[in-house]
What does this fold into?
Amino acid sequence: MEKKKIPTAVYAEMTPNPSVMKFVVDRALVSGQHQLEFMNAEEAKVCSPLATELFHFPFVSAVFISGTIVSVTKDESLGWEMIVMQLREYIREWLEENEHAIEDDKISLLSGFIDTASPDSNTSLDPAEFITANDISASEFDETIVDLLNEFVRPAVEQDGGAINFVGFKEGVVYVQLKGACVGCPSATDTLKGGIETLLVSKLPEVREVVAMT
It folds into this structure.
């Protein structure tokens, strides 16, 4: 018996980062508030069949999945005008044949995989390691900062195919982690300093600076 296809619509949008294209799907791809970034095929294989398939394209260098969005980062070998339609159709057809882009029960394994990855692997610094290395502990301002980021920043960043996560607060400095289209975006510094930093400083006098961890 032929497998019934899942009706799926996908459209592509440019992001402020010229290396990243956002593909918007008409159904949720990951449960809850998960924002998953895969920097190579090995990471993708832990919990994302869709990201694993996308890494088969030689020009794909990173995949970010959040809500109904798949953000794909490409290398410099080809321009988007040559590949965006092919990639959009591939994602649509794959999702018509497969219900789950992310295996929710395996998401928890991803952090452990990254933690134990080799030093040469193309992965971002784990927030827990960053906090430990910089002796950052929980503060009385953490909840307020997170609420401000969620209310005023997160929706706009997600619309651009990226994500910003609160990491910690110490001595007036808010540390955040950028993901998806935000990574390597030419306007990311302006957004970080001119937008996010200005917002937090104006709302919370204890904040004097916002820094993205690397």
About this structure: Confidence is low (pLDDT under 50) at residues 114-123.
